[in-house]
Each structure stands twice: as C-alpha cells, then as structure tokens.
Write a structure and sequence with these properties.
heterodimer, A: 307 residues, alpha/beta, Alpha-Beta Plaits, 6-stranded mixed β-sheet, 10 helices, 14 strands, B: 384 residues, mainly alpha, abc type-2 transporter like fold, 2 domains, 4-stranded mixed β-sheet, binds magnesium ion
C-alpha cells in the first residue's frame, strides 16, 4: 500500500490550469521529488495534498485516508514546510518549536526539542530570536517545525532555494537523516542536482502536467545514455563539420560554448582534436559529462529548468 | 486547555518583546493623558457662577442659599443682568443664573397645583388625566464653547434646581436645599479625561494592534502555516483576544495609577464594574478589528481603514470633550459611534460611581456591536 495516492488531480485559477490531471503514488519511506520550473504547479500540487488548497477534481489519499473534503483527518500524520517561511517574530527557536509542538496530540518534551535542534543543527541557536536567524537557519527551523509531531510524511516545498551551496549540502544531510528514521518525504525543487542526489524517484512537471516519473538514473538512461562534451574554441567552428568529424548525434553552440552529444566518447574526442589541428583552432575548457536531469528536462520541454 | 495556555503565553511574550507595540500600548496613552491633563487642567478648577435675583423674595433667597451650599461653584451675586452678561462675555464668569421677577409667585402656584394633583391622585383618579404642574422658569446663560466648564455649570445648576423640584413635589417647604451630587463635587477636566483615554486606547490597541497583527500574519503566510496543523484557528484567535484584554486591563490600571499619582484622580465606582466595561468594550472593538483585518488585503489597507474608523470616534466619541455640547446636526453621527457608548459607560462607572444596571443601555449597544461585527468578520474571513 502506498503512503500517498494522488489520482487525476486538477486545479485551475480562473482560466489557468495550474495543475492538470496529475496522478502519482509515493511509497512508504521514499524521498519523492517534484522537479519543475517556476509556475509548473509544484506548490499547488503539494498544498492540495497538505489540505491547504481544495482541488477542483481528483482524489488524494494519505495512508488510505482521503484528504478532501475533510483535511483535518490527515493533519496529525503530516509535517509541512511551506515555500515561504512563516515564523513568529519575537519568539526564540526553542519557543517556536515548543509552541508548534503544543498544536499536536503528541506531547513534545524538552528532550525531543533537543533532538530536533540537533537534527537541523540549530543547537547553538536555540535561544536566538527567529528574526535574528539567517535565511538558511530559518529554513532549517521550518524543517524542524515540520517534524514536531513526528509525522509519517514530510512535505518540503523548495527547502534549499536561496541557500548557498554549502548550506544546501548540509540541508541534504538533514533530509537524508530524517528519511533514514523512516519518514516518507515529498519535496519540490528547481535543482536537478538536488533531485538526483536526494530522490528515489522524481516527477518531472511542467505547465501543470507531470511529464514523466522515474528514478533519476532511469530518466537519464531514457535519453539514450549519451555523453555530453562541451568546450570553447579560439575560433568559430562550423557546426555541420563538427558533427561530421566527431560523429556526434547532435551539436549546438550557445554564447561560445559548443556542446555535442555522442554515444562514443573516444571517436568524438579524437575527431574533435583532429579537426582542431587541421583547422588550426584551440580547444579550451573541455568538459565531458554524462547527461543529467537538466538534459532530460530540456529534451521533454525544450526549455531549461531555470529560464 | 494546555494548548490555549501555551498560545496565550507565547502571545504575551511576543507582545512584551515588541518594543514598538509596548510604546503604543502603554507609553503613548500615558503621554497623551499627561499632556492633556497639564494643558487643560491648569487655572480655575471651580466654575464661577453669577446669580441675579430679580425677584428678591424669601423664596428666591432660599434658592440663592441652595447655590451657596452647593460648593461646587463659586457664587457671585450680581444685581443687574446686563452687568452679569458683560462679565460672562469678558470671561470673568462661566455662567449666569437669573431668578426672574415673579419667581416666588410661580413657585407658590406650582406647589399649590402639585398638592392638588397629588390629592386627586390619592382620590384614585387616573394620573394621565392630571395635568403636570407648570415649570418654574429659571434662566441660565453660559458659553457653550467653553465646553467643559459650562458642562459643570449646567450640571450644578440643574442639580440645585433638581433638589428644589424634589422639594416641591415632596413637601411644600423649600428648606433643606442641598446638593446631592457626589459626582460633580470633584469633577475636573482630568477626571473627565481619564476614562475617555482608557476607552480610546482600548479602541486603538484593537484597531491597530490586533487588526495589524492578523493582517501581518496573513501576509506572511503564518495563518496558512497554522492551517496545516490540527490547531483550530478559533483557539489561536481566542488567545490573541485574551492577550489583548489582559493588556487592556493592565493599561487601564496603569493609567488610573498614573492619574491618581500625578493628578489626584480617584476611581469612585467599583473595579468590578470597570472590569466588565473593559471586557465588553474590548470585545466590541476586537470584532471590529477582525472585520477590518478580514476585509483588508494588506497592512496598508488595514491601517488606512483603522484610521478612517478611529479618527471620528477619537474626536466625536466623547474622549476629549462631552458629546452633549456638540451641535445638534452631528448628534446622529455621535450616536452611531461605538466609542461614544464605551466612553460613556467607562465614565459613568469611574467618576459617577454608577452601578452596572445604570449603564446597561451602553453595554447592550456594545454587545450588539460585537455580534454584528463578529458575523461580518466571520463572513469576510480569509486565510491568504
Ligand atoms: N492563488 C493563486 N491565484 C491565482 N493563480 C495562482 C495562485 N497560486 C498559483 N497560481 C498560478 O498557478 C501556477 C502554478 O503555481 P505554483 O505556485 O503551483 O507553481 P510552482 O511550481 O510552485 O512555482 P515556483 O517554482 O515558482 O514555486 C502559476 O502560474 C501561478 O501563477
Ligand atoms: Mg512553488
């Protein structure tokens, strides 16, 4: 039995179909990601599952309990971090956790607050006022607040947006730790790297629709497992020539950055340098990489994750 | 209960730690009271009343004695009405009472008619068919622009004449004329002002504090964040309201304490009645504040709306000057303002020592206001 079941979910704002007939399941203990650009409908989808926004149609079940029309039934089961951090000023980190803890049937004692502080690395900030925290610290506090009721499912809406790479990585550790304790996690993100690293499965969403759902690896393999070679050149290079010489399946150039996709790295590299020698240009900044979710997204939608 | 307690404690902490809120809650009302108290309390505390006895009979002399005994006012005997009016215009007198020629005759007639009326009543006649006695005319001149002093003058004259009236209807003797007024004995502007200021701050803290906070919580998504917890919103709001009331009571006590310390103002009524008035008044303005918060999309709108609502009440609701001296055309507006009733009730309890039963009308108006705005805020409520 799946922890979350979403079936034929739709919601429109006036004439904009924000979420368009979306279905997916999330298994117990999974980290499930929803990846998509701004306005894809990620938040709307999540908030319908959380019981914040009423769907126009469709069905949502958490642990076999229908969320709608009575979202109260599932509130004790879930922990929520909203996209915009919403914290009271003038309360300290510890007071904030205690207050939110008091909202639930489960009694949150001091030792459990210590554990939460530990989990999100805010132990030394427990006495700090909420408005004195940095963005990343507020983000971590929001995640801790989503855990005060020891929920079965945790929803994180863009937990790492706006954080520096280091803070992002430390948050990933936090999320993994929570997941190891057996909690099912649903998160949204713009970052394909985040989805690849964290999520067991990813739903790719664009313009209200889910385009594909699979493990990040499978999604990438689905592209045909091509390798991406990118470089810059001292002179302009003719794309047709380049494609012929390197036996690439596809070549492109954008702001001086040449990109080619190939199934045979060796042939392509030799071809590239032969051509450089013959045409007398210099290859700079050479990168060879496997395709990633960004490429998957590009392929599906014809546009980047962040416009 | 635990949840309510936790919420209330969190709210109290937030209020106490918010320096700006504390200023508006406590310091500002104190400053306002202090300023008005100092500016308008200087000079004559006892109004000066000129009296012109044109009748000059034993009866009119007794009236004069009655005024002398009243003590609330300083009495000046003036022989000519023209003179007295001149002194009134020059500001040397605050009011002039004239006992007209024929006063004693009128009075005697009134007494006789009254006796007859009572005799007929006792004989079992329907009182409705009995004519009421003609009023004995006494003229009072005063300057209505000197609102406060003239208020006292009118009050004391009415009071003295009232006792004459009582004497007339109960016994034919006019002896024993005496001011029964407790309230007017010590009534100064500051006594009038303190209950008004308490009422006004009750309004302002709800309209700016509470409405602003709720709109702020909504704008920042805190209400939505609460909505995903099992905590009922009603409990959250109840804690907010309780917080509001506790601070209102605290502020009232602080203002009363400061007024006592600096201006020697005494609360004559019961503190229990005062407590009841504060609670009922708070509820009325809390529900108005909720309606504003529900209606307003953002903080700018709610603050503007609060200003539009509170401004007229501040000046017309009887905070700084008595409403019954306002021109007639504006009276209906004054009667429509909830603050008028709150200030009135507050004043009646604090300086007139009225029991709750005497202000039940004001309290019912406030309760009705609460009910109406509760429904409005409920209908308009929005989470985001
Ligand atoms: N309350 C609302 N009223 C009207 N339109 C809305 C509302 N909320 C969202 N939308 C629209 O619905 C679409 C989906 O919004 P949603 O917030 O779900 O996107 P998202 O994938 O979470 O985007 P982001 O990555 O920017 O957070 C957007 O076009 C947005 O403008
Ligand atoms: Mg979003």
């Amino acid at each position: 039995m799946n922890t979350i079941e979403v079936k034929d979910l739709s919601k429109a704002y006036v004439d904009l179909k924000a979420v368009d007939n979306v279905s997916f399941e999330v298994a117990q203990g999974e980290i499930f990601g929803i990846l998509g650009p701004n306005g894809a409908g990620k938040t709307t989808t999540l908030e319908m599952i959380e019981g914040l926004r009423r769907p126009d149609s469709g069905e949502i079940k958490i642990k076999s309990i229908s969320v709608w029309p009575n979202p109260g039934a599932t509130k004790e089961l879930i922990g929520v971090q909203l996209q915009t951090t919403a914290l009271f000023d003038y309360l300290t980190v510890r007071e904030m956790l205690a207050l939110f803890g008091s909202f639930y049937r489960r009694v949150l004692n001091a030792a459990q607050i210590d554990e939460l502080l530990e989990a999100v690395s805010l132990v030394d900030k427990e006495k700090a006022r909420v408005n004195e925290l940095s963005g990343g610290q507020q983000q971590r506090l929001s995640i801790a607040l989503a855990l005060v009721n020891d929920p079965e499912v945790v929803f994180l809406d863009e937990p790492t947006t706006g954080l520096d790479p280091q803070a992002r990585r430390s948050l990933w550790d936090v999320i993994r730790k929570i997941n190891k304790e057996g909690k099912t996690i649903v998160l949204t993100t713009h970052y394909m790297e985040e989805a690849e690293v964290l999520c067991g499965r990813v739903a790719i969403m664009d313009a209200g629709r889910i385009i594909d759902i699979n493990a990040p690896k499978k999604l990438i393999e689905g592209l045909g497992a091509e390798v991406k070679i990118s470089f810059q050149s001292s002179h302009d290079v003719a794309l047709d020539d380049l494609k012929k010489q390197t036996e690439a399946s596809e070549t492109s150039v954008f702001e001086g950055q040449y990109v080619l996709y190939t199934k045979d790295v060796q042939t392509s590299i030799i071809g590239l340098f032969d051509m450089a020698k013959a045409d007398n240009f210099k290859v700079e900044n050479l990168h060879i990489s496997g395709a990633n979710l960004e490429d998957v997204f590009l392929q599906y939608t014809g546009k980047g994750l962040r416009d | 209960m635990r949840q309510f307690y936790d919420l209330l404690v969190a709210n109290l902490k937030m209020t106490v730690r918010n320096k700006q809120a504390l200023f508006w809650l406590f310091v500002f009302p104190l400053i306002l009271m202090g300023l008005f108290g100092i500016v308008f309390n200087g000079g004559q505390a006892t109004p000066r009343l000129g009296i012109v006895d044109r009748d000059n009979t034993p009866e009119s002399h007794k009236i004069m004695e009655g005024f002398e005994k009243a003590q609330i006012i300083k009495l000046y005997e003036v022989s000519e009405l023209k003179d007295a009016k001149k002194r009134l215009r020059a500001g040397n007198l605050d009011g002039v009472v004239v006992l007209p020629v024929g006063f004693s005759k009128d009075l005697k007639q009134a007494i006789a008619e009254n006796d007859e009326r009572r005799a007929r009543q006792m004989a079992g006649e329907n009182p409705d068919s009995v004519e009421s006695p003609p009023k004995v005319k006494v003229d009072l001149y005063y300057d209505p622009s000197a609102t406060f002093v003239s208020q006292v003058v009118r009050g004391s004259v009415a009071n003295v004449l009232g006792s004459v009236d009582r004497a007339v209807s109960r016994s034919p003797t006019l002896l024993g004329l005496k001011s029964h007024s407790v309230r007017l004995t010590n009534l100064r502007y500051i006594d009038f002002l303190v209950p008004g200021i308490i009422a006004m701050t009750l309004m302002n803290s709800a309209m700016f504090g509470l409405a602003g906070t709720i709109v702020n919580y909504r704008e920042r998504g805190i209400l939505r964040r609460l909505k995903v917890t099992p905590q009922p919103l009603a409990l959250f709001l109840a804690a907010q309201i309780t917080n509001q009331m506790l601070f209102s009571i605290l502020r009232a006590l602080l203002l009363i304490g400061a007024a006592w310390l600096f201006f020697d103002v005494h609360v004559l009524g019961s503190y229990f009645a005062l407590f009841v008035v504060i609670i009922i008044g708070s509820l009325a303005f809390v529900t108005i504040a909720f309606s504003v918060a529900s209606f307003s999309r953002n903080r700018e709108i709610s603050d503007t709306l609060s200003n539009i609502i509170t401004m007229p009440m501040m000046f017309l609701g009887g905070v700084f000057f008595p409403v019954d001296t306002a021109p007639a055309w504006i009276r209906p507006l004054i009667k429509a303002l909830p603050l008028t009733y709150l200030a009135n009730a507050m004043r009646d309890v604090m300086i007139k020592a009225e029991p709750l039963s005497a202000i039940s009308y004001d309290l019912w108006v406030l309760v009705a206001t609460t009910v109406v705005f509760f429904i409005i805020s409920f209908k308009l409520w929005r989470w985001e």
